[in-house]
């Protein structure tokens, strides 16, 4: 099995590589950024990608976005996503195509070596593997227009509801205004608010937030 690892934490990245190699799994490439993940998968004809959800430059969902892009171009490519926290929106988006060969585990599960290696093999074999905590929260999470938003997008929407401008939101979240603009565009799309909607999209987004809060 040929595996590519995308993880910005050097210790965890090298630890994952050593763990997989110790099990006879061929780690063909490692990277600390999500930008080149797709190229590495193609160049090495990888059988599986192990991907951190939050990666540079914004540490929000770059890894997830890269994983989803890879799945769009290679629907049968197995992806095992690792996250430090339960992020139901990102888990739901990854699982949305229903094609299998995906996994979503909390990073703390890596310490349970046998379970982690079993998950690697199951995802590579076409199965879906969910961390028990992720599965529990997905089951409990009520259906809502806000359910599709990432945690960062919800943070941005909450600050929009407080009347903050993009520059103020950027300062509070310690990211660039460009990143905030991107998050706002994404949450507009996910809430189904289009440019030709009657009314101001920021106002409509805030009204949706207040109704569902």
From TrEMBL:
InterPro entries: CheY-like_superfamily, NreC/VraR/RcsB-like_REC, Sig_transdc_resp-reg_C-effctor, Sig_transdc_resp-reg_receiver, Tscrpt_reg_LuxR_C, WalR-like. Keywords: DNA-binding, Phosphoprotein, Transcription, Transcription regulation. GO terms for molecular function: DNA binding. Pfam families: GerE (PF00196), Response_reg (PF00072). The keyword Transcription regulation applies. One of its GO terms (biological process) is phosphorelay signal transduction system. This is DNA-binding NarL/FixJ family response regulator. It comes from Lipingzhangella halophila.
């Amino acid at each position: 099995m040929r595996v590519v690892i995308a993880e910005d934490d050097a210790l965890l990245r090298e630890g994952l590589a050593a763990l997989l190699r110790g099990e006879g799994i061929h780690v063909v490439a490692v990277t600390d950024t999500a930008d080149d993940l797709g190229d590495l998968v193609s160049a090495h004809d990888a059988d599986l990608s192990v991907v951190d959800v939050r990666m540079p430059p914004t540490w929000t969902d770059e890894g997830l976005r890269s994983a989803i892009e890879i799945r769009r171009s290679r629907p049968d490519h197995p992806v095992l996503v690792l996250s430090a926290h339960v992020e139901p929106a990102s888990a739901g988006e990854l699982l949305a195509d229903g094609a299998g060969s995906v996994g979503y585990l909390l990073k703390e599960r890596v310490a349970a070596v046998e379970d982690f290696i079993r998950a690697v093999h199951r995802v590579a074999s076409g199965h879906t593997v969910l961390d028990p905590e992720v599965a529990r929260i997905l089951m409990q999470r009520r259906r809502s227009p806000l359910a599709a938003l990432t945690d960062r997008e919800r943070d941005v929407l909450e600050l929009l509801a407080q009347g903050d401008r993009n520059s103020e939101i950027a300062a509070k979240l310690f990211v660039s205004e460009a990143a905030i603009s991107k998050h706002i565009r994404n949450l507009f799309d996910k809430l189904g608010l289009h440019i030709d909607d009657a009314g101001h999209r920021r106002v409509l987004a805030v009204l949706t937030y207040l109704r569902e809060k």
